[in-house]
Each structure stands twice: as C-alpha cells, then as structure tokens.
Write a structure and sequence with these properties.
By secondary structure, the protein is α/β, with parallel strands linked by helices. 40% of the residues lie in helices and 16% in strands. α2 (38-48) runs parallel beside α11 (239-249) and α8 (175-182) packs across α12 (253-274).
Length: 337
C-alpha cells in the first residue's frame, strides 16, 4: 500500500467534488471543444469578475505548459526573462522555456527565492554588453521556498518592469495559497499591483489537471489559439478541464482548499519547532522547509515519503495539501518522538 505523501500536491488525489463533477458532466452532451465549451466560458467569467477591463484566458493541462504558453505570448524570438535563481522555469522544467522559445533565462541570486528591483538590476548589470534583451520579469507566488511577495513588493516589481520596458509575469501554480495566506483577492494581488500576466493553478488546488493563463490586458494576447495548438495544449475535450476549474472557483473552493493546506503547514511547523527541529525559513504558505538529519528523515520515511530538497544542507520540504488533516500531521510528528 502506498504511503501518505508529503512531497507535494501532485502526489495527492483529486478533490472529491472535482471528481464528482467530471463524472457528472460525462453524461451530458458535448457543447464545445478547445475552450469553447460552456464550462470553460463560465470559469473565465469567474476570473473576469475580478477585473474592470476585458481579460483573455487560455487553459493548459499543467503548470509547465501554462508558463510556456504565457511566455510564448509575451516574448519576441530574441527576448529573455529575468527570475530568481530558484524559479521553477529554470530549475524544474527541463529547459522547456529554452527548448520551446529559444529565450535566455537570466537568474538573480536570492536567499529566499524572491526578486527585488535591486537584485534584477544587479543581475542585468552583470551581463551588460552580452546582447540580451530582457522583456519579462518572472516571479512565483508563493515562491519555490514557500515565501510570499507582499502586495507592495509586487507593485514595486511591476513599476520596475514597466519602467524598463518589461512586463511582469506571475507563475501562480499555488497562487491560491498566497491569496489565502495574505487574505486578499485576485483584484488586489493582480489588478491593483500592475501584474501583466499570471497563471492560476488548478492541479495543486485539487484538480486532476488544469491551469488558467490570464492576460490582464486582453489585447496583449494575439492569436492565442495558435499558441495553444503549437504548444500541444489545444484540448479537444476541453469541458473536462473547464469543469474542474469551475468547480474549484465556485464558492472559492480553491481558496478554501489552500487555506486548509496553509493551516496544516503552520501546524506542522509548530509541532516541529516544539521538538527542537529547525525551520529553514519561516512558513508563509503550504510548504514547510526544515532541517532534518538522516536518522530523523529515515524515521519519517517509515510512514511517509519525503526527500531532501537541498541534500548538502539537509533541508526537507514538507508540503500540506487540501486533504491534509490534523490526524495526518499527528502521525507525521509521531515518527520523530
């Protein structure tokens, strides 16, 4: 029997509400394909409700595809992006951006996986004269280390990007966690700060698959259908993606799911610190980074699946999800008593 897994949301099953919705709509006649079905349209209406002007939305099956589709639309063939050195597009996507677009990734050193206008400028200054053309600043919210950008920090990055002829893109595979943790809406985090394009992750919120790529200024998206087709994301049976996103959006289920994940992460951190285990960084989202010796990690792995995130520093990532319970946390902690 498979162990309960704390390595990440993708080792989790589907939200039962989402699974039930998939089964239910399978008995309905198909009313559209490649995003032109009624479920996808209603999911887009939900996203549109946070913005006063018209947005454009494309849907993909996973987060890497969402990032590539977004950046394809934002970059010229000679363009490049700037991100923190830990950012997913550079560390965990198998060179997908470079392979699909030819774009150069410029990374900036960071201790907490966050960018600042100063760190971006320093990274660009270090490469002056290399004939790079930075067009997009890329951030992840929450970051790959679970840290959060405040609204003021996002605004400062947007101002910097726009002041230097660039746009700001947010990889939002876990953006629901950030919204729940900060207690803000998409309007406040995106529209009011100046973000140009962002993604909304459904997979990590409880869907089987599904991400939304949102162009805040709808006119910025040109020939989106062709970008999807070229990126192999032109999903014929799109209602099964749209319905999942809509199910998560209705009643803000996706936010509530991440709120539970955040709460359980805080509980894990509290229990770990009470047992003398050091946190690598403060817990701000649904991810806990802590320092575990090999003996302690082995004990945890007697019941759960965990691995070193940074093996040289003995740092382990423990990820809570929508389905994590207090009982799961107690069982995890009991392995180190």
């Amino acid at each position: 029997m498979a162990k309960k897994d704390f390595r990440g949301e993708v080792w989790n099953n589907i939200d039962h509400a989402v699974l039930s919705e998939i089964v239910k709509i399978n008995s309905e006649a198909v009313d559209g394909k490649v995003g032109n079905d009624s479920y996808t349209a209603r999911a887009t209406e939900y996203l549109q409700s946070f913005f006063e002007h018209k947005i454009s939305v494309l849907y993909t099956i996973n987060g890497t595809a969402a990032n590539i589709v977004a950046l394809k639309a934002m970059l010229a063939p000679y363009g490049s992006v700037v991100c923190a050195e830990q950012t997913h597009i550079d560390t965990h996507e198998c060179g997908a951006l470079e392979y699909n677009t030819g774009a150069k990734i410029i990374t900036a050193p960071s201790s907490d996986a966050k960018l600042t206008p100063e760190s971006i400028q320093k990274a660009l200054d270090a490469r002056a004269g290399q004939q790079l053309h930075p067009q997009v600043v890329v951030i992840t919210q929450p970051t790959e280390l679970g840290t959060l950008y405040t609204l003021d920090e996002i605004s400062a990055l947007a101002d910097y990007a726009h002041g230097h002829g660039m746009k700001l893109f947010i990889d939002g595979a876990r953006i629901g966690s950030a919204l729940a943790s900060l207690g803000v809406t998409l309007k406040e985090m995106i529209a009011d700060t100046g973000v140009d394009v962002f993604t909304v992750g459904g997979t990590k919120a409880g869907a089987m698959f599904g991400e939304a790529v949102v162009f805040v200024h709808g006119e910025d998206l040109i020939e989106g259908d062709y970008i999807l087709k070229q990126s192999m994301q032109h999903l014929d049976k799109s209602k099964f993606l749209g319905a999942q996103m809509l199910c998560l959006f209705e009643g803000d289920r996706w936010i509530k799911n991440f709120a539970n994940a955040n709460k359980m992460a805080k509980l894990i951190a509290q229990e770990l610190t009470q047992r003398g285990i050091e946190l690598y960084l403060p817990v701000e989202s649904n991810m806990v980074f802590c320092i575990l010796d090999e003996k302690t990690l082995k004990k945890m792995n007697s019941e759960f699946s965990l691995t070193y995130w940074y093996s040289d520093r003995k740092v382990v990532r423990i990820t809570a999800t929508f389905s994590t319970t207090e009982e799961d946390v107690k069982k995890l902690i009991s392995t180190i008593d």
